[in-house]
Write a structure and sequence with these properties.
Elements (H helix, E strand, L loop, with lengths): L1 H36 L8 E10 L11 E9 L2 E9 L14 E6 L3 E5 L5 E11 L14
Length: about 140
Amino acid sequence: MLKRITTTTLSRVQQKEKVMRTAMLLLLSLILVPASYGQSDPAKWQVATIIQAKELPSTSQQASGVVSFEVTLRVAKTDYVALYTQPKASKGVAPYRAGQDLLVLVGSNTVKYNDMLGRMHELPIIRQQKAAQAVTPEKSGDKR
């Protein structure tokens, strides 16, 4: 009789353990699956080369001392022309030059980048086009 009780008790304990394992797996999956859907793709920062920075003539609508540039950036096989408005404190000194590389985050209507002090700037994209096959400008330090 003792043997029968032990076998019956053992099988009940095994069944309870199996139920507990199943419940734990179900609970874990219910927690992890929604958490993975809530995460967005990380932003894709890319290397851009400044092809051209053309100063725009000031208009009567602009405040005095404000300088704007049309900056052409090449990212992969696409050229983006963005509007860069320089802060008044810069006094007409362009912070970037043709041939310089920087990391950018290209959005649907804007280009974001961090300046040398780590401040993020957002430039509106004026237009974009497939990059021409022309050679990119030389960097100032590469001339011999």
